[in-house]
């Protein structure tokens, strides 16, 4: 947990929420730290765009349907010059074991996973079996 209290900021233009980037400083408006926040955000966005020139796997935990998955894949493909894939992990209440779903959409894998076990190592081991990190970040 963070030791410094911070402002909870909702950017209604871009629908972005920041919960720890603007520390509460007595007698100082939150906007005083906006310059540093903007620089950090710009660096992260530039780094993300750079990473997209490599093979990338996006993982999404949450409910999704075939049409939404296809739309996300189309957007992703248009923005990513390198090969990219999406792993959708759909949490299902009461599910005992992982179920693979084949939507026959290229670049997309979908697993139904137990809702009650988001931090279960066995679930993540199953989902990420066969993947390896490239060492790009080292």
Record the SSE blueprint.
Blueprint: E1 9-11, E2 16-18, H1 34-51, E3 56-61, H2 66-79, E4 84-92, E5 99-101, E6 108-114, H3 121-128
Parallel strand pairs: 3-4, 4-6
Antiparallel strand pairs: 1-2, 5-6
Descriptive overview:
This protein has 138 residues and is α/β, with parallel strands linked by helices. A four-stranded mixed sheet has the order 3-4-6-5, covered by helices on one side. Strands 1-2 form a two-stranded antiparallel sheet. The chain has helices at residues 34-51, 66-79, 121-128; strands spanning 9-11, 16-18, 56-61, 84-92, 99-101, 108-114. It has three helices and six strands.
Shape: globular
**N-to-C span:** 26 Å
| Uncertain stretches of 5 or more adjacent residues | none
Q: What order do the strands of the largest sheet run in, or round the barrel if closed?
A: 3-4-6-5
Q: Based on DSSP secondary structure assignment, what is the total number of beta strands? A: 6
Q: How many helices in DSSP terms?
A: 3
Proportion of helical residues: 25-40%
Oligomeric state, counting identical vs distinct chains: single chain
Structural class: alpha/beta
Residue-averaged pLDDT: 88
**For the report, how would you describe the main beta sheet?**
4 strands, mixed
Radius of gyration of CA atoms, rounded to a whole number: 19 Å
- Beta-strand share of residues: 15-25%
Element order: H for helix, E for strand:
EEHEHEEEH
């Amino acid at each position: 947990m963070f030791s410094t209290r911070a402002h909870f900021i909702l950017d209604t233009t871009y629908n972005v929420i920041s919960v720890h980037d603007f520390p509460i400083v007595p007698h100082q408006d939150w906007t005083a730290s906006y310059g540093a926040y903007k620089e950090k955000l710009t660096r992260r966005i530039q780094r993300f765009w750079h990473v997209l020139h490599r093979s990338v796997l996006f993982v999404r935990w949450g409910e999704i349907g075939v049409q939404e998955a296809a739309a996300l894949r189309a957007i992703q493909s248009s923005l990513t010059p390198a090969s990219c894939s999406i792993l959708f992990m759909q949490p299902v209440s009461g599910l005992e074991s992982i179920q693979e779903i084949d939507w026959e959409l290229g670049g997309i894998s979908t697993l139904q996973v137990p809702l009650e076990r988001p931090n279960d190592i066995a679930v993540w081991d199953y989902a990420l079996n066969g993947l390896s990190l490239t060492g790009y970040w080292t």
